[in-house]
Structure formats: C-alpha cells, structure tokens
Write a structure and sequence with these properties.
By secondary structure, this protein is mainly alpha-helical. It is 66% helix and 2% strand. The protein contains 15 helices and 2 strands. The radius of gyration is 20 Å and the shape is globular.
C-alpha cells in the first residue's frame, strides 16, 4: 500500500523514492511483522486461553510426556502469524502485483482450512479434526484456483514449464499436467509442514529459514540482471514476493518468542497448513519447486517418515520407527525435546544451504 501511495509522490518528495526498492520494503516488512507479533501476541494468547479451557487435545498414542508437558496449552496460535504477515504484506507490497494476491489467497485459504480443523479438535475434545478427505478436497480447490492464476500471470514460455535445478537451460513442458503438478507441490508442502509441527518451536524456525531463502530466490528471479547473471529463468513481478517472505520471517520470529519451550501457545493447523501452502505457492511462481524440496528437506524427511511407517505397517505389519513423524521416534529413544528441536533446526539450516547452492551450481 505504501508503495502504491508514496512512489507516485516521489517527484515532489525525493525520500519517497526509497519505497521503490524491494530491499527497503522487505526490511520494513520484517520489522513491521515482528512488532505486530509482539504487540498482539499476549492478547491473542489470552483470548485463546479464555476460549480453550483444556487447551489443545493431546494424542493419546503419542509420547507419554506430552500428556503432562503439553496439557492446557492453547492452539490456533497461527492466527497471530496470519495477522502479522497479512498486515505487513498489505502495508509494504505492491498491491497491483497479481502474485502477491495469489499467495495471500493460498495463505488465508489454507489457514481457514486449518482453523476449521483446529476448531473441530477443540469442540470434539480429541486429536482428530477435519477428515483427511475433506481437508485434501478443500486444499485442492484453493490450489487449483491459485495454479490457474499463476499460469495466467506467467511470462510467455513459462506458463506450463518446470525448471530443473543444476541445469541452466532445461525446462520441461508438462502441458496439461502443470495444474496437477502445482497442486501436488502446494498440498504436499502444506501437509509436510503440518506433520513437522509436533514439538515446541520445531516447525516455526524451519518455516522462517525457508521463507528467508525464498525471499532471496524471488528477489533474484524477479530481477533481470541477477537472473541473467545466475542463469535463472526471469519472472517479472516475482520479486515482489520477497516482501511477503520477509513478513513471514518477521512474524515467525515474533511467534517463536511465545512458542519457545515451554510453549505458551501452539501454532496449530491454522498456521502450519497456511504457511506450508504459501511456501509451496511461492516455489511454483518462482519455478523453484524442486529447490523447495531441498531447502525444505526437513519437511520432506518428516513427511517421508510417515509415508514409510504407514506403508511398512500395511505391507508387513511392522513399524520402521518407534513412532512417526520421525521427531517422535527420537522422543521414544529418550532424547530430550530441546535436543531434538535444536538438532532439527541445524539440519534445516544444512538443507537450506544445499538448496541455495543450486542457484550458482549450473
């Protein structure tokens, strides 16, 4: 909004030229989202506690310690992040950019699905909320709308193409399969982040790391000079998503203040589904879907651990892990929660560095 209001006035007041620069507005988005998170955090937590006397329902088949340490902690804290990211993005982004609205649509849409899921868990007083089938259908509807809009807004030659990392000129034209591919990326990313959100602070820091990486990636692919130098596919307008990613970094940092062990509030599906979906949508817009699988490798590992566990049990009757997702496996082995969380953060950083290396290794 500030870009649209102040840049036209730059001829009369030169300092307004600052708002032309993505770097300045991204920095403003980080700071604004952080301040909003700190300001509304205590209020949101008090409101959630007043409406959730017993807190989030705890899985009875989960680690026994959770029945004690997690009891009474409110969920739906993702609302706090949604408010901070939404307000900051609307304030600092170019609102004439279609990609900004597409990502906001996915974020709020997936966040709405997560909110319903959390609400049903609370009202039914069990860890099962919205059925998997209904959740996937709702995600597919939103993802389809987003994928069609992305395809419509894409530059010529990139409407149905997928870029391959490490190869500078390789584009795979998937034609009519582009929409299903984009759906898989957005829904997969959303649910992978959701599966990772199981310990205090475990998911929010990797979200912040991935968002920071994609702030850089979208800035580069949206800048014709940097894209040409790094031999990336130039996508006009994609750079504006750096503002959204920066806002997500700031909001995540603010949420971590309240989610650090022992957590005062849980993100819930309201946050994990929303920001997993938004990261997936951003990767589709930037044509870095495969790079997302590397940068967000921790989310992939968590999701694969569940897939392997279910497949193994159905085919052989035996489990590979003591419990899935894999962070619960380490809890069952006797690792302390802070140890698991910090080591998984380190792993997330390693995956992020590997993913960023693909920008130059071409």
């Amino acid at each position: 909004m500030l870009y649209n209001l102040l840049v036209p006035l730059a001829a009369h007041f030169e300092p307004f030229n600052l708002f032309r620069y993505l770097t300045f507005r991204s920095g403003g988005a980080v700071f604004t989202a952080l301040v909003i998170s700190f300001y509304i955090g205590p209020k949101v937590i008090r409101r959630l506690k007043s409406g959730q006397a017993a807190g989030q329902p705890i899985r009875l088949d989960g680690p026994e310690s959770h029945l004690v340490t997690k009891k009474g902690t409110p969920t739906m804290g993702g609302v706090m992040i949604l408010i901070a990211v939404g307000m900051s993005t609307l304030l600092w982004a170019d609102l004439a950019n279609p990609y900004v609205w597409i990502v906001l649509l996915v974020t709020l849409g997936f966040g709405g699905i997560g909110f319903v899921d959390d609400f049903l868990k609370l009202t039914r007083r069990n860890s099962k909320g919205l059925s998997s089938r209904r959740k996937i259908i709702a995600q597919a509807i939103i993802s389809t709308a987003a994928a069609v809009a992305i395809q419509y807004a894409a530059p010529p030659g990139l409407a149905s193409e997928i870029a391959v990392p490490f190869f500078k000129n390789v584009l795979i034209d998937v034609g009519i399969f582009y929409i299903p591919f984009a759906l898989i990326v957005m829904i997969g990313a959303s649910n992978a982040v959701n599966l990772t959100d199981g310990l205090d602070g475990l998911a929010i820091v990797p979200i912040m790391i991935v968002a920071g990486c994609f702030a850089l990636i979208t800035y580069l692919v949206g800048n014709i000079k940097f894209a040409d130098y790094l031999q990336l596919h130039y996508i006009p307008g994609a750079g504006e998503l750096a503002v959204f990613c920066a806002a997500l970094v700031g909001a995540s940092l603010g949420f971590l203040w309240f989610n650090a062990p022992p957590a005062q509030v849980f993100m819930g599906d309201t946050g994990s589904l929303a920001f997993g979906g938004s990261i997936g949508a951003i990767s589709v817009i930037a044509r870095h879907e495969f790079v997302l699988a590397i940068i967000g490798g921790l989310f992939v590992v968590e999701a694969v651990s569940v897939i392997l566990q279910v497949a193994s049990f159905k085919m052989t009757g035996k489990r590979i892990f003591k419990m899935a997702p894999i962070h619960h496996h380490f809890e069952k082995l006797g690792w302390q929660e802070p140890t698991i969380v910090i080591r998984f953060w380190i792993i997330a950083c390693i995956f992020a560095l590997l993913g960023l290396a693909t920008l130059k290794l071409r």
